[in-house]
Write a structure and sequence with these properties.
Order of helices and strands: HEHEEH
Shape: globular
Helix content: 25-40%
Radius of gyration: 12 Å
Mean pLDDT: 93
Amino acid sequence: MHGGCFASINLRLPGDQIAFIANHAEDQVLFVDPTLLPAVEKLAPHLPKVKHYVVMGDKVPEGTTLNPVHAYEDLLKE
């Protein structure tokens, strides 16, 4: 009801194509599996429209360079 939509991205695509898809869709929030954080951290500089990264889990792994980054379970609690 807030006007957003969910779009999945095929992780088998090369990084430049993933960035193109996310930028073309003007994605503002990216939900990320913790195991994919290293790949997303490499893509993040190429995703200027993304305002928030949400790690699917109860905590954000230490050392992540994504900013701002949130833990999914923490958002649900709020």
